[in-house]
Specification:
alpha/beta, five-stranded mixed beta sheet
């Protein structure tokens, strides 16, 4: 069983509250718009980190992290990209890959809108953790945490970090 912390859209912001949740995770997944790499450096000191770059990320982040990260965690195939959309409204850049080879878990960021929903047509679960940074239109900073045990994604929890 793995305890996962999922976050996105830091826009260079990191604080002790985010890091306290990171300490409790077995793995940290970041869905892009990291900003300053001090964010991912700090997170990687707490637990193994998987990340993708986002549209605001500079050449350093783009060199360190991929645009799309596809991997297995336990027995769950995961696909993470920053601009991915959601069931029924997938981004054109990723739509074909999702439709031809749907993962069990599809993760994106970018919208700053927390969203968890099933795609019954493709048999996948979509997660967007919202934004945990202070830049953007969102009113409450959010992250997600959950467990993966074999093929099961369980114990999903929304973490609200307060107002911007």
């Amino acid at each position: 069983m793995k305890k996962i912390l999922l976050l996105s859209d830091n826009h260079s912001y990191i604080d002790d509250r985010i890091l306290s949740y990171a300490e409790k995770a077995d793995e940290i997944w970041h869905a892009g718009d990291i900003g300053d790499l001090k964010v991912t450096d700090a997170l990687a000191q707490k637990a193994p980190l998987r990340a993708v770059f986002g549209n605001i990320d500079n050449h350093k982040a783009r060199k360190e992290f991929p645009l799309v990260n596809r991997f297995y965690c336990e027995d769950v195939e995961v696909l993470i990209t920053h601009i991915g959309g959601y069931p029924g409204k997938y981004s054109p850049a990723i739509r074909e890959e999702i439709q031809q080879q749907p993962p069990q878990l599809f993760i994106s960021g970018h919208s700053h809108i927390l969203k968890v929903m099933n795609d019954k047509k493709l048999g996948l679960l979509h997660m967007n953790p919202g934004a945990c940074g202070k830049h953007g239109f969102h009113q409450v900073r959010t992250m997600l945490r959950f467990t993966i045990d074999g093929k099961k994604i369980e114990n999903l929890e929304v973490i609200e970090l307060g107002k911007r």
